[in-house]
Amino acid sequence: MIEVQRVSMAYPNGVSALKNINVCIERGEFVFVVGESGAGKSTLIRLMCREFLPTSGSIRVQGRDITRLKRREVPLFRRNVGVVFQDFRLLNNRSVYDNVAFAMQVIGAPGREVRRRVPEALEVVGISHKAKMKPQELSGGEQQRVCLARAIVNQPTLIIADEPTGNLDPKTSTGIMDALKNINIRGTTIVMATHDKDIVDTMRQRVLVLSNGNIVRDEKRGVYCQHAN
Ligand SMILES: Nc1ncnc2c1ncn2[C@@H]1O[C@H](COP(=O)(O)OP(=O)(O)OP(=O)(O)O)[C@@H](O)[C@H]1O
């Protein structure tokens, strides 16, 4: 599903955020990317959804090297990738329903598909009862659910999430994680950067640990800190 090969990333200011990273993620996996602040998690996550290009190396997603995509090919690639970031990036003057529907409309989905799939996506993340509200009328956790619904509505094969539970209380975070796990059980690959030790230790999924731009641990059914307790 994702093959990151010899990827390095230096920002224009000279900071070396990733140093010759190699990672292979199989279809259907659930992968946590953890590590101290500044370790390179967001950089790796954002490279995987082609927000920007690495300084060197290749990133193959579903067989295609996304570092070689032409600018006009990027939107097509993104249709297959659901992206959830901590800053919600919702349209504040539109309803919850419209925010999710918009993700389908921009790719030209027929109206009947939109009317069928938007309620389904809202149901999966447990926010159907707020469909008519505007994002400002919702709590942070509810807004994050809307983002998740928007990310899954086009039935992507891959979801990339950067701190989707950041700033949320533990109960709300658990709700978001349950929704993500449900989506994963249906076959969607999930890659998620997080600082949330409790979530990582509870879920026992694959854990990739970054430190200072290097992958220092890669464990199946891993935990946040190897030597804790
Ligand atoms: N746009 C940028 N320009 C210059 N340097 C950057 C930029 N974005 C990140 N960096 C630097 O790259 C390194 C890795 O940053 P990154 O955001 O990937 O870390 P992170 O592990 O996601 O951290 P955090 O947990 O704090 O979000 C850091 O040293 C950071 O200061």
TrEMBL record:
Q: Name one GO cellular component term.
A: plasma membrane
Query: What are the record keywords, sorted?
Result: ATP-binding, Cell cycle, Cell division, Cell membrane, Membrane, Nucleotide-binding
Tell whether ATP-binding is among the UniProt keywords. yes
- Domain ABC transporter as annotated: residue spans: 2-229
For this entry, list what GO says about its biological process.
Answer: cell division
Source taxon at top rank: Bacteria
Q: What is its main location?
A: membrane
Q: Name one GO molecular function term.
A: transmembrane transporter activity
Task: Tell me the Gene3D superfamilies matching this sequence.
Answer: P-loop containing nucleotide triphosphate hydrolases
Cellular localization per UniProt: Cell membrane
PANTHER family per UniProt: CELL DIVISION ATP-BINDING PROTEIN FTSE (PTHR24220:SF470), IMPORT ATP-BINDING PROTEIN (PTHR24220)
* Record's subunit section: Homodimer. Forms a membrane-associated complex with FtsX.
Job description of the protein = Part of the ABC transporter FtsEX involved in cellular division.
Its name, as the record gives it, is Cell division ATP-binding protein FtsE
| Organism this protein belongs to | Dethiobacter alkaliphilus AHT 1
